[in-house]
């Protein structure tokens, strides 16, 4: 299913009968129309049931099967399945507790920095990543360069702004890069930026929290050697699961986390912060991955989300008093897109009005250099009618 040709993918993306059957896989509480699926995704009913069974069974059996089977065999099988999902070698991934935990570990344990080196983040990075890079700079007495990305963004002006930053600051050695920014949904030209970074001797840590499950990517092709993901957004796993990725040739650049010796130093699991794992959640992952693939994988999920996004963005661009921030270049957007009311200063208040007056749940986002906005994120249970209601609400409120 995940290998559908692109013509079939775009037909299925708009096949409402197909998406009604997908929606029926989820238990949904009646209430406001949820256009904030960016926080975390629902598990399907099947995943939720299997998770409950594992919670119940591990609680009953307690430590014996965990010590005797899970630690040596079960956890490795699950890890291998996750590597297959991402399309990389099993020994290059380890399961962490969240994308933040994975990314923070790479950042705090990165060992290639010398006095005088510089670090780079943009305004669109996730706050915990910006904070971790700031912390790293302060810990090592280095300078953190903050790049404000251009607005409106184009493929070329984004790549050029990184190129300019590398030329202006030739001591940059490490940078964070977010594949899909949580603020505006902008999809970064990762491959082009990573190539430019390589030419300037800069290592890239990719934040793939919002990319995995809605964008079909190949880390090797992107030229990415260090990355963190989570599994609860677009893959549909229980909460509390993230993934750390370090290309085999790069493992030496990241020390074991805080002196961890439970695993050999050439085992990527030593780079994950220590802690008792959520065993039932891990054991649910093979079912999660089956469900993800049965739904058409990242390619079809992404095509559906893009379709729903286009349904509201095209008319919203025509509304006087609405600015859609995320560009329409298919290389630069996904299902998440942000807009702002141009005549109202307080976007938080406008998001509240969308909820109170129009029953539409969205989220206001600050922190982009281009200013505050409201983020709209459809999900797999969202219908074209619901997206149409958003357009009507924008027309009335603008
Ligand atoms: C771009 C981005 N990075 C990182 C994270 C953090 O993910 P987690 O909650 O798994 O730590 C998020 C969560 O929303 C995100 O949107």
Features:
398 residues, alpha/beta, Aspartate Aminotransferase, domain 1, Aspartate Aminotransferase, domain 2, 2 domains, seven-stranded mixed beta sheet, four-stranded antiparallel beta sheet, 13 helices
Q: What does this molecule look like?
A:
The protein has 398 residues and is of the alpha/beta class. The protein folds into two domains: 6-42 and 296-397, Aspartate Aminotransferase, domain 1; 53-291, 3-Layer(aba) Sandwich (Aspartate Aminotransferase, domain 2), CATH 3.40.640.10. Helices cover 43% and strands 14% of the residues. The chain contains 13 helices and 13 strands. The chain has helices spanning 6-13, 16-23, 45-61, 63-86, 99-109, 127-140, 155-168, 190-199, 219-222, 279-294, 297-317, 347-358, 384-397, and strands spanning 33-34, 93-96, 118-122, 143-147, 172-178, 203-207, 226-230, 242-246, 322-324, 337-341, 360-361, 363-365, 373-376. A seven-stranded mixed beta sheet has the order 2-8-7-6-5-3-4, sandwiched between helices. Helix 8 (190-199) links the parallel strand 5 and strand 6. Helix 4 (63-86) runs parallel beside helix 10 (279-294). The radius of gyration is 21 Å and the shape is globular. It starts with 5 loop residues before the first helix and ends with a helix. The mean pLDDT is 97. The site of pyridoxal-5'-phosphate (PLP) has 11 residues, from helix 5.
């Amino acid at each position: 299913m995940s290998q559908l040709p692109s013509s079939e993918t775009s037909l299925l993306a708009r096949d409402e009968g197909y998406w009604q059957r997908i929606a029926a896989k989820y238990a949904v509480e009646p209430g406001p129309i949820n256009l904030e699926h960016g926080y975390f995704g629902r598990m399907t009913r099947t995943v939720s049931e299997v998770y409950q069974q594992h919670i119940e069974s591990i609680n009953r059996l307690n430590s014996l099967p965990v010590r005797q089977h899970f630690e040596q065999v079960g956890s490795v099988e699950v890890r291998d399945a996750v590597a297959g999902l991402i399309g990389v070698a099993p020994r290059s991934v380890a399961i962490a507790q969240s994308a933040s935990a994975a990314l923070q570990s790479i950042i705090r344990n990165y060992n290639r920095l010398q006095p005088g080196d510089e670090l780079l983040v943009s305004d669109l990075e996730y706050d915990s990543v910006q904070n971790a890079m700031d912390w790293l700079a302060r810990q090592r007495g280095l300078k953190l360069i903050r790049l404000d990305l251009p607005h409106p963004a184009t493929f070329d002006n984004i790549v050029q702004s990184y190129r300019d930053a590398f030329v202006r600051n030739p001591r940059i050695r490490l940078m964070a890069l977010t594949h899909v920014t949580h603020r505006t949904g902008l999809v970064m030209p990762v491959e082009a930026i990573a190539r430019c970074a390589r030419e300037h001797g800069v290592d890239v840590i990719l934040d793939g929290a919002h990319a995995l499950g809605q964008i079909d990517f190949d880390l090797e092709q992107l030229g990415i050697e260090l990355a963190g993901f989570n599994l609860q957004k677009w893959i549909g796993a229980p909460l509390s699961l993230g993934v750390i990725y370090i290309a085999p040739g790069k493992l030496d650049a990241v020390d074991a986390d805080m002196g961890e010796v439970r695993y050999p130093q050439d085992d990527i699991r030593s780079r994950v912060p220590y802690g008792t794992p959520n065993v039932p959640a891990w054991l649910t992952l093979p079912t999660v991955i089956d469900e993800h693939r049965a739904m058409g994988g990242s390619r079809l999920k992404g095509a559906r989300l893009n379709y729903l996004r286009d349904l509201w963005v095209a008319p919203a661009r025509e509304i006087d008093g609405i600015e859609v921030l995320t560009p329409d270049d298919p290389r630069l957007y996904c299902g998440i897109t942000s807009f702002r009311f141009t005549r109202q200063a307080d976007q938080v208040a406008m998001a509240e009005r969308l909820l109170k007056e129009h029953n539409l749940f969205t989220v206001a986002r600050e922190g982009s250099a281009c200013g505050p906005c409201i983020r709209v994120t459809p999900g797999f249970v969202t219908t074209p009618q619901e997206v149409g209601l958003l357009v009507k609400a924008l027309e009335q409120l603008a």
